[in-house]
Design goal:
mainly alpha, globular, two-stranded antiparallel sheet, 202 residues, 11 helices
């Protein structure tokens, strides 16, 4: 079955969701689906996906630089040491999503991420241990979670993480390249697949 595509200003076909806003094209081309093994980037994206829950990714992307400023560029040690005074400050910051539970979750999750680093060496080693198996996946963009995302979500919650439901974890996996969910016919599907094949798993 053919999948919907969007024709970009350069004449290239891309995943249909980029048509929502021009800001999605560079995000789609340069970030979404490319495999990531950098701990800071992985932690940032998991936090932003938790903020996105119930909102549009367009809203989060527009505020991403503000989030980076608010949370010390998602440095695990710095975020884990944030205090109630920091929470109060961020609740007054119109540049981010002012949701106490989600702000507190980022701080809590930074400490939990440090525990994973102490145990596994890197956050990346933990994250990539949940890479979905091909048999879990249907056609690109045909599902909102998978067996591995459900299992990772369950394990994170057991470790004390917050706002990491299966749909949030699957969206994180899509964006961080743990699977290639670019549509068939998208100009990025083949390059992303090549990058995933070449990747040395952490």
């Amino acid at each position: 079955m053919s999948q919907p595509l969007a024709l970009g200003p350069d004449g290239q076909s891309r995943c249909a969701w980029v048509a929502q806003t021009g800001a999605f094209i560079p995000y789609h081309d340069e970030e979404w689906g490319w495999p990531v093994t950098d701990d800071r980037h992985l932690f940032e994206k998991l936090c932003l996906e938790s903020f996105q829950s119930g909102l549009s990714w367009r809203t989060i992307l527009a505020k991403r630089e503000n989030f980076r400023s608010a949370f010390y560029n998602f440095d695990l040690a710095a975020v884990a040491q944030m205090t109630e005074a920091d929470i109060a400050r961020l609740l007054g910051d119109p540049g981010i999503i002012r949701h106490r539970g989600k702000i507190e979750a980022v701080i809590n999750n930074a400490a939990r991420a440090q525990e994973i680093v102490a145990e596994r060496g890197t956050l990346a080693a933990y994250v990539w241990s949940w890479e979905p198996k091909p048999e879990e996946l249907g056609a690109p963009q045909s599902q909102t979670t998978s067996a591995s995302a459900i299992a990772m979500s369950k394990d994170l919650k057991k470790r004390g993480w917050k706002f990491v439901g299966p749909t949030t974890v699957f969206a994180f996996m899509q964006s961080m390249g743990l699977l290639n969910d670019h549509a068939e016919g998208c100009c990025l599907r083949a390059p992303v697949e090549a990058a995933r094949r070449a990747l040395i798993r952490p």
